[in-house]
Specification:
4 helices, 280 residues, six-stranded antiparallel barrel, Double Stranded RNA Binding Domain, disordered C terminus, RNA-binding, structural constituent of ribosome, rRNA-binding, Elongation Factor Tu (Ef-tu), domain 3, 31% strand, four-stranded antiparallel beta sheet
């Protein structure tokens, strides 16, 4: 059984060539490191231990650090086993394109969102009681039984809701973006954003069908990228807007001829200095 580890990014939508809208979940699948190869002769079962996304060494204990060093790998944040999978050696990397293709069906396993303590109406979809003034209860769980004097195990009551392992089966692979390590599956995936998930071949139903043809922009077809917003850093459509070129009109400035104005020459009057004779 083929499988790989990834991280849920967000949900978005894509359009097919015939105009049909498909809700999809974007899963980031970085290359997985094979940390250990388990065999039937040595371990009693066949499996591959995979790890994804590096983390700091001071967050890892010594036994786990020894296992990472054996595989010549950095410490990984998310480590899981994939049963009945072989064909890879310890220390090698597994890429998304090596396992899955568009049109294939997969099972995605993750941890659901935690809801905290919830009542029976929210947790188990119980019906509400009468809301009249004379009613004895409104949102209670009702009768526990008329004869038996104890509560049976697995009785649906109020309690902790969510934050448990959930597997969604038979999700169709819509598109694989090998350049950005992105996987688009039809429908929802358990868990919040940035939640690690395990993607495996489906157990029930058909294995594959004809791939859906997506409506792609011309610029995206050349770069083999999907057109919808797959991540928060999705490529927006570049619209080339031609700015009209305004021709500069040469405006002839009228030349003002300077009129030569003759300034009248004022003759300086010769002032005769009278020489005062010295009077003796």
């Amino acid at each position: 059984m083929k499988g790989i580890l990834g991280r849920k990014l967000e949900m978005t939508q894509v359009f097919t060539e015939n105009g049909k809208l498909l809700p999809v979940t974007v899963i980031e699948v970085q290359p997985n490191k094979v940390l250990q190869v388990k065999t039937v002769e040595k371990d009693g079962y066949q499996a591959l231990k995979l790890g994804v996304q590096d983390k700091r060494q001071n967050l890892v204990n010594k036994p786990s650090m020894g296992n990472f060093k054996k595989a010549n790998s950095n410490p990984k944040r998310f480590v899981k086993e994939i049963r009945d999978m072989n064909g890879f050696e310890m220390g090698s990397e597994i890429n998304l394109s090596d396992l899955f293709v568009a049109g294939q069906f997969v099972d995605v396993t993750g941890v659901s969102k935690g809801k905290g303590f919830a009542g029976a109406i929210k947790r188990h979809n119980y019906s509400r009681g009468p809301m009249g003034h004379g009613s004895g209860y409104h949102r209670g769980i009702g009768s526990m039984g008329a004869i038996i004097n104890r509560i049976f195990k697995s009785k649906k009551m109020a309690g902790h809701m969510g934050h448990e392992q959930v597997t969604i089966q038979n999700l169709e692979v819509i598109f694989i973006d090998s350049a950005r390590n992105l996987l688009l599956v039809k429908g929802s995936v358990p868990g919040p954003k940035k939640q690690f998930v395990r993607i495996q071949e489906n157990v029930k139903g058909i294995k594959t069908k004809e791939a859906v043809k997506l409506l792609m922009r011309k610029s995206m077809e050349e770069s083999n990228l999907v057109t919808p917003k797959t991540t928060s850093e999705a490529i927006a459509e570049e619209v080339a807007v031609e700015t009209p070129v305004v021709e500069e009109v040469a405006v002839e400035t009228p030349v003002v001829e300077e009129v030569a104005v003759e300034t009248p020459v004022v003759e300086e009057a010769a002032v005769e200095e009278s020489t005062n004779s010295e009077v003796e």
